[in-house]
Known about the structure:
Blueprint: H1 4-28, E1 34-40, H2 41-46, E2 58-63, E3 67-73, E4 78-84, H3 95-124, H4 134-161, H5 164-169, E5 178-185, H6 187-208, H7 214-231
Antiparallel strand pairs: 1-2, 1-5, 2-3, 3-4
Amino acid sequence: MANRQERIIFAFGGILCFTCVMMVAAAMGTRFWVKGTVLCKTGAQLVNATDPELDKFIGNVSYGLFHGQRVKQCGLGGRPFRFSFFPDLLEAIPVNLHISVIFFCGVLILFSSISTAFFMYNAIGHPYETLHGPLGLYLWNFISCLCSCLVMILFAAEVKIHRLSERIANFREVNFLYKTYTEQYDRSYWLISFTFLIHALNILLIRLAGFEFPFQVAKETELGTGASDLMY
C-alpha cells in the first residue's frame, strides 16, 4: 500500500499524463506544426527582383497533419488558399510517412491515457506488482517517450528531407515555381517535444517515489543469486 507521499507523486504524474493527452489531441487538430514563407522564383527572375522588391514575391504557408493554408505572392497580390491533406494533397505528399506520423500520434494518445489510468490506480488503489505497479508505469511512460520521439523525427524527415512545404506550394502549379524561403516548426510541433519531456519527468517521479528502475532490480537480483550459488 502506497504511503501519502507516493500517492501525491502518483496523482501528480497522472495529471501530467492527462495533460499530455490533451496537448497531443489539440496539436493534431491544428495547422500550426510548420510555418514558413515561399518565394515565387519564376516571377522574381522575370523582373530581376532585388532584395527590396522580393517582398512582392514572398508568400507564406502554414500546415499541420490534416489541413493548412498557403498564400501565393507573384507580384500581383496574395492568393490565399486553404487545403486538406486528405484527399487534396495525396498526389504530392509522401503518404506512408505522413500516415505514420498520424498513427504514432494516435499511439501516443493511447499510451498517455493508459499512463494516466495507471498513475491514478496506483494513487488511490492497492496496486500489486507486474504491470499494475511501478513496472507498468515505467513501461507505459517509456513507450510514450518513444512514440513522441518517433512523431518528431518522422515529421521532421517529411518536412526537411521530402521538402513538404515546396510540394504544397507547387501542387498543381503550372506557370510558376516556388522555393522555400524560410521555414520553422510552429507551436503544435513543440507541444509534442513538451509531451516527451513530461513523460521523461514522470519516469523520474516514479524513481523519486522510491521504486528502482526495472533494469537495476534485475541486475541486483542476478548478483544476489550469484552470491548464493558461491556459498553452496
